[in-house]
Amino acid sequence: MNGVSGRMGYRQHLVRSILAIREQGGVELSDGRRVQVEPLLVGRNEAKLAEIAERHGIEHYTTDLDAALADDRWQVYADFLVTKARASALRKAIAAGKAIYTEKPTAETFEEALELARLADEAGVKNGVVHDKLFLPGLRKLRRLIDSGFFGRILSVRGEFGYWVFEGDWMPAQRPSWNYRTEDGGGIIVDMFPHWNYVLEYLFGRVESVYARAVTEVPERVDERGHSYRATADDAAYAVFDLEGGITAQLNSSWTTRVNRDELLEFQVDGTLGSAVVGLFGCKIQPRNATPRPTWNPDIPDTHDYAADWHEVPDTEPFENGFKVQWEEFIRHLVEDAPFPYDLLSGARGVLMAEKGLESSRTGARVDIPAVTAESVREAAAELEGAAQR
Q1: Where are the alpha helices (DSSP H) in 267-370?
Q2: Which residue in 60, 359, 354 sits closest to 197, CA to CA?
Q3: Of all residues in the chain, what percent carry a pLDDT higher than 70?
Q4: pTM above the 0.90 mark?
């Protein structure tokens, strides 16, 4: 586990996923057997690693990534590094024959992300990319609604994500300063569009085009040491996506907005037979036969309680931490070849959508997003090899 001293690597992947799996006795397989996990912590700061290991009763840690990759005891390489450092480490792990599990974005460019997917395919190593939002309770309820036909024909998706990230002067920022510097891999499109790609793709259909506007609303911020710096990365993005099947999705992403909704992330899905408003945990629905009849009249106050017309979808099953659930699915994929579609190729499609979003913002035009499949990648690789031989 490389990068466990960072916020996401430590809290979600180590403590709430791997250690939780270890404490429950491992992952149960389809035949009732259980497979256990044992972490090896990897990082640059030995003192931090030693402190984390002691705190949680972990035996193994090292600052030598190459030695860890050369050791046959460790079968999976998990990457939670900053984006700029990820691709080179993933290449090493693939070359060492390790299975790959990584945060996203998987690389800084689509070309590099696609190369990683190709290398893993050629090496025959199983691989997975964190698609955590699909495993949240709210989106799992949404998946059930879609599968049940609740919406009829889905017409549109609208999403609002974000909150006010303090500038760092009178109040410490909730996010690290590198997030606001393009040269360090920052920017809300680079950060969030890979998420939106897999959410839209796996719930509603492939994203075929994007029209986006990326802006830097707060041009100067204060870093962790109290030094002012110029924010060079976008901190807000407003986008319209065309999905296969004619669905239109509109998603606003912002670190410069104040929250007036039930959760920090909410989607509204409208269909011919019903609508839903979905957050990280909650899911409210309004079916066609219970839809009120609003009448537009700007001359008198509207006293109708529209919120009362929605009904909460109950929790009919226990929902565990989404990161942990995906880890368990990946481990089943490794051990018994259970299906797992969230791979490096899916991660590359997310990076591609971010690149196309930034291109759209630069040009002011709607930009098409080509389909990227395993077959198309192999065909392109074969063409390149043939050209090299000629």
Answers
A1: 322-336, 344-363
A2: 354
A3: 97
A4: yes
Which H helix or E strand runs over 15? none
CA 293, distance to chain mean position in Å, is: 38
Taking 80 as the threshold, does the pLDDT of residue 380 lie above it? no
Helix or strand (DSSP H, E) at 141? helix 137-148
Contact 383, 228 (CB under 8 A): no
Q: How many CB atoms lie within 10 A of CB 57?
A: 8
Token digits of residue 112 = 């590099």
Give backbone dihedrals phi and psi of 368, rounded to 5 degrees, phi first.
Answer: -70, 150
Q: Residue 339 CB: number of other CB atoms within 10 A? A: 7
Please, what is the angle between helix 344-363 and helix 110-123, to 10°? 170
DSSP string, 330-354: HHHHHHH------SHHHHHHHHHHH
**40-91 per-position pLDDT tens digit:** 999 999 999 999 999 999 999 999 999 999 999 999 999 999 888 999 999 9
Could you tell me the maximum CA-CA distance found in the chain, to the nearest angstrom? 77
Q: Which pLDDT score is estimated for 241?
A: 98
**E strand spans, 135-206:** 154-162
Where are any strands of DSSP class E within the chain?
A: 27-28, 34-35, 40-42, 60-62, 76-79, 99-102, 127-129, 154-162, 207-215, 220-222, 228-230, 236-243, 248-254, 265-271, 274-278, 283-287, 311-312, 367-368
Q: Are strands 311-312 and 228-230 parallel, antiparallel or unpaired?
A: unpaired
- Residue 75 has, within 13 A of its CA and on its CB side, a CA count of 8
Residue 74: partners with Cβ closer than 8 Å, 6 or more residues away:
40, 68, 98
**Between 377 and 349, residue with greater pLDDT:** 349
pLDDT of residue 7: 87
pLDDT of residue 388: 67
Predicted pLDDT of residue 378: 72
